[in-house]
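Ticket closed. Logging final result for Probable periplasmic serine endoprotease DegP-like.
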Amino acid sequence: MNRYTKRLQLTLLTTVFALAATMAHAAGVPDFTALSAKAGPAVVNINTEKSVENKIPEQWREFFQNRPHGLPFDDFFNQFERFFNQPQRPRKQRSLGSGFIISPDGYIVTNNHVIAGADVVSVNVESAKGEPDTFEATVVGTDSETDLALLKIDAGRPLATLPFGDSDALQVGEWVMAIGNPFGLDHSVTAGIISALGRDIRSGPFDDFIQTDASINPGNSGGPLINSDGKVIGINTAIIASGQGIGFAVPSNLARRVIEELKTNKRVARGWIGVTIQDIDENTAKALGLKNTRGALIGNVLSGEPADKAGIRAGDIIIKVNRNEISGASDLLRTIADLSPGDKATVVAVRNGAQKTFTLTLGERGTEMAARDETPQQKQNAATGQLGLKLRQMTEQEAGQLGLESTNGLLVVGIQQNSPAAMADLRPGDVILMANLKPVNTVGQLQKIVEGDAAKRGAIMFQIYRRGETFFRTLSLSAE
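Final structure:
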């Protein structure tokens, strides 16, 4: 091959690459080089540290203290016994996450789970020279129900920022970019598209996630999901550990409202009407003589709460709140929670085939109220988070499908990977009948046991019902 032929091939390849780049740009693919260069300085790495008490499970202590003596390896066992009788020093537990700066004076958005329980939160900010500057951060406020947190640092200089975009304007297939700190690899940039909108992954009462195939890994939590205009349209929050190319972000429009309230009040106050609600399936619609499954069915009205005072009854179907049409239980929950305590709300409900209008003065949604207000699919117990369990009470229909004669017990609807519940082989669909030999029919009952006897003993024993069989599983409450 002569020089002329080689030059011709090189010219053709250059032309092909240039044409491909031009076509990609024409097809709407953003310039990720420019986006990452512009957004990168406003993205921060978050490091946390907390003291964790080393607890010895009570059953281990009892084994070594009460074992028969004169056995082989007595010296070996005696060493363990002496170890168990000594006070254990707390150890430092460290974790990593991401965040982004929203104001030049140092306000930073991240996930609540990134900084929850931390004794020290430090933030690495990219300096003008490209080297990280480290600052200790103050936690301004947190909101566990949307998994958002607001931090503040004093850098002594104006900082680069990222603006919020309009997540309601997103379309499936749109290009996005994520920047974060996966596995401690700071300022890693990944790109992909919007895979879906409005995802409910059963992580909380206000699930309305953006799904993306931009690569998101542990450590990306709290980092921004950025559109082609360089605006934050989501806060990266969750992944499906068993899948690839499946990540979830909190929509920016939801996050913006929460962050503004945290900045102003250091907490989020949400509306509450005092009912339990559920979706309407086809059979329920038939039984009630409804033409469709639209609306939220009231399962119970709590005495003395706003709905009760306004005259709403169990069996009513709420189809509208103010000007908002209600499609289902989650829709009603979010609509009411978006209002403030003390606000007036006009509620339209269907009762015996006729529409009725009610005027309510909203109460404030609190932790206890939130547990009662959530739909059957969303009800969870924050107190069992250390066990890696998501629980709720069963419906009569579910109890019948599982072969149970009553709705006693708590249904397992989710297991966190590598958690004590996962290690004990608990599974979604299991029913917890007893905890430490005490019946548990409500979240509150289990919470008292977790925080009481179980916390003292360092372990909790569950009686489990699974596919017609009943057995016990023991979970350690010791910090891993």
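The domain at 380-476 is CATH 2.30.42.10 (Pdz3 Domain). No further action required.
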